[in-house]
Design a protein that fits this description.
Elements (H helix, E strand, L loop, with lengths): L10 H18 L5 H14 L4 E11 L2 E13 L3 E6 L6 H14 L3 E6 L7 E6 L11 E2 L1
Parallel strand pairs: 3-4
Antiparallel strand pairs: 1-2, 1-6, 2-3, 4-5
Helix pairs in contact: 1-2
Length: 142
């Protein structure tokens, strides 16, 4: 079992994802719709050899059964990191809660929230869901 007490979990992967996001922000700047940044980020990730799936559906488990309700993550990179993209003037606690719900539903430990809409800078937040908060069960991707 790996000891992550001194190292950031999936540090290199998150660093690569954020680097791609900075390139998109520096090229396009703020002001476009989320869909534009989503597409541009997909091109940038592909160009950098970062594996990702776009608009990945997350199935939610409840007491051994899969619910009909699904979440749609903007991207899942490296099959390990959920990436949520926003194009808003600022991020809120609701956006962070959305990503945490996705992490719980997918039983994944790391997510990245990226906001391209801030006029001053690219906003991003790396979020980690500890073992005590992670779901155990039948949640999965489809």
């Amino acid at each position: 079992m790996a000891d992550y007490s001194m190292d950031l979990l999936l540090k290199d992967e998150v660093y690569a994802i954020i680097g791609a996001a900075f390139e998109v922000y520096n090229t396009l700047g703020p002001g476009f719709l989320e869909a534009v940044y989503h597409e541009a980020l997909g091109i940038e990730l592909m160009g950098r050899g970062i594996p990702f799936e776009s608009e990945k559906m997350i199935r939610i488990g409840y007491k051994g059964q899969l619910l009909n309700k699904e979440y749609q993550a903007d991207m899942v990179c490296y099959d390990k990191v959920i990436l949520e993209i926003k194009a808003l003037s600022q991020l809120t606690a609701d956006h962070e809660a959305q990503l945490l719900n996705y992490l719980k539903a997918a039983d994944m430990p790391v997510g990245v929230l990226v906001n391209f809409g801030n006029v001053e800078k690219l906003e991003w937040k790396r979020m980690v869901l500890g073992d005590k908060r992670r779901r155990v069960g039948s949640a999965n991707f489809r």
